[in-house]
């Protein structure tokens, strides 16, 4: 098969390329240039200048062609600006989902088809399983590296064309060992971090630069509008959070948490932990990887990148889906709510803000 | 394992149609380089070894100067086209306002001295400079102008109307600097006859080695020019640094060999290629203007340049899109944008025939291009 391998320059995708070539496939490497490498890209993050050199070095050493794809404009429009806009709308976005969904699995995948590739492979830790009704998306063997939550928006058509050879690896050490067996220069390279486009780990600066109205200190208020404290900037707050509330962390003997963020007024709204939880939430832009029954299905939902999935019932609606939680929880608007059946992803969507939920 | 092998299916024959990026080395150039490489002396040394090296250097200078119609002392050797262009702009452009063509190479576009007044000169849809705008700009009040317009465009091969440009610049007392990196060796050139004030060329675009170029200045007397770096005062104090003799000998031999080769066969092969490409659905960009015989710029509507390049490369065909960027990514073409091509600007590839191209090469390109044009285009969102 002719397989296009999306290479970040890291050890994972390099091993994917080397292994597929060793299996006899015609491998073509491609690295997305997501931003100007001369800019302040974060060290240890994806796709800065050094990463392109590393990807190319691996391809040259193994003797397969490698191309650098200019995705700067697309990445800025479809990931960075949407990321900042979501914060400005009081949400806590997941830019990696937008990147996988757009730049990687739409643009790059289209390019792979354009050059006559039969499949596209990535170094994501997720399993693609051939099921009775086509390809299924599952959690990987290595739970510590599970990236399935970030890939929920992969469509069935995309999944059909994609390959994730690392989904069966027991752990990262095994991947590094394989990299060494292949003699890859990147075998010992440190892992990349999330939010590859933010330098110094400070996405706050980036968003505040794009939305200056959000910058600066503001008030912490309770649900009645009473000012109960001050904060350094709304960007630092996510719904469900208890940290950074200072003296407002406990009011009238009750532990408090963030129940809303109002970027336009630079206000953080808090409420008592007990009593603020919800049992119903609404999700938008739902991607189904199964044919969802109209009456809904019982499954588990995961609403943050790292948390235990919780039992729920998911009912498809015209606007997306309604999620009925067995136990109340505090979902953060903008985050993904992914539906699992065991290890398998059934679908998922983005959590709507509460007012949008009640209006719907 | 070499870069030229492919795992999996059969290895296609490689054909190289990217001469405007760099020409294959001419045998005459290789021979001259090897001979010069064995000379130990530094041309600046007073001893016999130095004299021998100097003789080779000055012989090269005499030949290049005579061939291109300048006085020998007005041939300044540089490390290549970029340096020759930047040296002209910095060394001859002080106190002048810059009028620079929108379709110039980055060597010129990004070589304008910091702080100098700068106006971009637009081109028409065929890629030729708008003479009416040039004249209006020249007629503006202010310091005398320093006009930068290339002889032949690197992406399209389009020639600017140089005789008319020179005439206008004479009328208004402007300096005309011409980037002839793509034209030198591919068409007859005489600075004295054509009348530009300075002209830059590069060795490897003529089939010589990379790392050598020249700046030529019109006029009988050695022109004064402030160096970019003074060094040991080489090149009559106008370009410091020990001259790279083998590279310069190669440049000189390549220039002579290229001018001895008639351009007509290249034009015929290009015509065949363009005809087939158009039949497959391509649009020739700049096709209405006079062009270099070896260059064609082809847009395939609905197909991004990146995918075309990759596909052709996987089929053994080396071509390019836009100007090569150091990271290897395919950047949008400022040249085609300036010509107002819209979406077609991002769907164009450049095919530039090298001096040793064969009819078989053209046929193989036509097959690969036709197959690409016929294949399905996946729908891309966004």
UniProtKB/TrEMBL annotation, chain A:
One of its GO terms (molecular function) is tRNA-uridine 2-sulfurtransferase activity. Keywords: ATP-binding, Cytoplasm, Disulfide bond, Nucleotide-binding, RNA-binding, Transferase, tRNA processing, tRNA-binding. One of its GO terms (cellular component) is cytoplasm. It catalyses: S-sulfanyl-L-cysteinyl-[protein] + uridine(34) in tRNA + AH2 + ATP = 2-thiouridine(34) in tRNA + L-cysteinyl-[protein] + A + AMP + diphosphate + H(+). One of its GO terms (biological process) is tRNA wobble position uridine thiolation. It comes from the Bacteria. ATP binds at residues 6-13, 32, 123. The keyword rRNA-binding does not apply. Belongs to the MnmA/TRMU family. Catalyzes the 2-thiolation of uridine at the wobble position (U34) of tRNA, leading to the formation of s(2)U34. This is tRNA-specific 2-thiouridylase MnmA.
UniProtKB/TrEMBL annotation, chain B:
It comes from Acetobacter cerevisiae. Coiled coil: none annotated. Catalyzes the removal of elemental sulfur atoms from cysteine to produce alanine. Seems to participate in the biosynthesis of the nitrogenase metalloclusters by providing the inorganic sulfur required for the Fe-S core formation. InterPro entries: Aminotrans_V_dom (IPR000192), Cysteine_dSase (IPR016454), PyrdxlP-dep_Trfase (IPR015424), PyrdxlP-dep_Trfase_major (IPR015421), PyrdxlP-dep_Trfase_small (IPR015422). The keyword rRNA processing does not apply. Keywords: Iron, Iron-sulfur, Metal-binding, Pyridoxal phosphate, Transferase. Belongs to the class-V pyridoxal-phosphate-dependent aminotransferase family. NifS/IscS subfamily. Residues 15-365 form the Aminotransferase class V domain. It catalyses: (sulfur carrier)-H + L-cysteine = (sulfur carrier)-SH + L-alanine. Gene3D superfamilies: 1.10.260.50, Aspartate Aminotransferase, domain 1, Type I PLP-dependent aspartate aminotransferase-like (Major domain). It comes from the Bacteria. Its cofactor is pyridoxal 5'-phosphate. Transmembrane segments: none annotated. This is Cysteine desulfurase. GO terms for molecular function: cysteine desulfurase activity; iron-sulfur cluster binding; metal ion binding.
């Amino acid at each position: 098969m002719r397989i296009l391998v999306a290479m970040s320059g890291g050890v994972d995708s390099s091993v994917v390329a080397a292994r597929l070539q060793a299996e006899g496939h015609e491998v073509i490497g491609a690295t997305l240039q997501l931003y100007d490498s001369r800019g302040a890209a974060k060290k240890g993050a994806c796709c800065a200048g050094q990463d392109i050199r590393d990807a190319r070095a691996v391809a040259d050493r193994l003797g397969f062609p490698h191309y650098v794809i200019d995705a700067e404009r697309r990445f800025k429009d479809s990931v960075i600006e949407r990321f900042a806009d979501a914060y400005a709308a009081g949400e806590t976005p997941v830019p990696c989902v937008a990147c996988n969904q757009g730049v990687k699995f739409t643009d790059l995948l289209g390019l792979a088809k354009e050059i006559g590739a039969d499949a596209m492979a990535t170094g994501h830790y997720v399993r693609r399983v051939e099921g009775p009704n086509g390809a299924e998306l599952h959690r990987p063997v290595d739970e510590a590296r599970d990236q399935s939550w970030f890939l929920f928006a992969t469509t069935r058509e995309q999944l059909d064309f994609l390959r994730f050879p690392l989904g069966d690896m027991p752990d990262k050490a095994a991947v590094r060992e394989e990299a060494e067996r292949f003699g890859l220069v990147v075998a010992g390279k440190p892992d990349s971090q999330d939010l590859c486009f933010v330098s110094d780990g400070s996405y706050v600066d980036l968003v505040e630069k794009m939305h200056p109205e959000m910058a600066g200190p503001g008030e912490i208020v309770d649900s009645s509008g009473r000012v109960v404290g001050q904060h350094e900037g709304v960007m630092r707050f996510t719904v469900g959070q208890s940290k950074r509330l200072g003296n407002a962390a406990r009011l009238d003997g009750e532990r408090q948490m963030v129940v809303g963020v109002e970027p336009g007024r630079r206000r953080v709204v808090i409420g008592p932990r007990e009593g603020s939880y919800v049992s119903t939430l609404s999700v938008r832009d739902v991607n189904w990887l199964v044919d969802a029954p109209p009456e809904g299905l019982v499954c588990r939902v995961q609403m943050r990148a790292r948390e235990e999935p919780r039992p729920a019932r998911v009912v498809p609606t015209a606007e997306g889906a309604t999620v009925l939680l067995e136990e109340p929880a505090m979902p953060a608007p903008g985050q993904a709510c992914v539906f699992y059946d065991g290890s398998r992803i059934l679908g998922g969507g983005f959590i709507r803000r509460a007012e949008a939920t009640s209006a719907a | 394992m070499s870069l030229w092998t492919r795992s999996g299916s059969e290895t296609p024959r490689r054909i190289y149609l990217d001469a405007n990026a760099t020409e294959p080395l001419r045998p005459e150039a290789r021979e001259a380089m090897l001979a010069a490489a064995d000379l130990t002396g530094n041309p600046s040394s007073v001893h016999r070894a130095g004299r021998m090296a100097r003789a080779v250097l000055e012989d090269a200078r005499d030949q290049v100067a005579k061939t291109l119609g300048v006085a020998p002392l007005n041939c300044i050797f540089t490390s290549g086209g970029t340096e020759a262009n930047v040296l002209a702009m910095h060394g001859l452009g002080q106190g002048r306002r810059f009028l620079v063509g929108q379709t110039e190479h980055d060597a010129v576009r990004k070589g304008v001295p910091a702080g100098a007044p700068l106006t971009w000169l637009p081109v028409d849809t065929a890629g030729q400079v708008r003479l009416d705008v040039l004249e209006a700009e020249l007629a503006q009040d202010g310091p005398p102008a320093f006009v930068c317009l290339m002889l032949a465009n690197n992406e399209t091969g389009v020639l600017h109307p140089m005789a008319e440009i020179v005439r206008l610049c004479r009328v208004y007392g402007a300096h005309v600097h011409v980037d002839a990196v793509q034209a030198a060796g591919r068409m007859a050139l005489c600075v004295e006859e054509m009348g530009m004030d300075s002209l830059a060329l590069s060795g490897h675009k003529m089939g010589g080695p990379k790392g050598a170029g020249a700046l030529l200045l019109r006029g009988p007397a050695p022109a004064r020019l402030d160096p970019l770096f003074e060094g040991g005062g080489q090149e009559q104090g106008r370009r410091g640094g020990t001259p790279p003799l083998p590279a310069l000998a190669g440049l000189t031999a390549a220039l002579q060999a290229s001018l001895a080769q008639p351009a007509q066969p290249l034009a015929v092969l290009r015509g065949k290629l363009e005809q087939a490409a158009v039949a497959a659905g391509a649009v020739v960009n700049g096709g209405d203007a006079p062009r270099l015989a070896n260059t064609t710029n082809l847009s395939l509507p609905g197909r991004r340049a990146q995918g075309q390049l990759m596909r052709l490369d996987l089929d053994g065909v080396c071509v390019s899109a836009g100007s090569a960027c150091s990271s290897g990514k395919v950047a949008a073409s400022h040249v085609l944008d300036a010509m107002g091509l819209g979406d077609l600007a991002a769907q164009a590839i450049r095919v530039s025939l090298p001096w040793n191209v064969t009819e078989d090469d053209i046929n193989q390109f036509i097959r690969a291009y036709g197959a690409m044009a016929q294949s399905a285009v996946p729908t891309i969102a966004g």
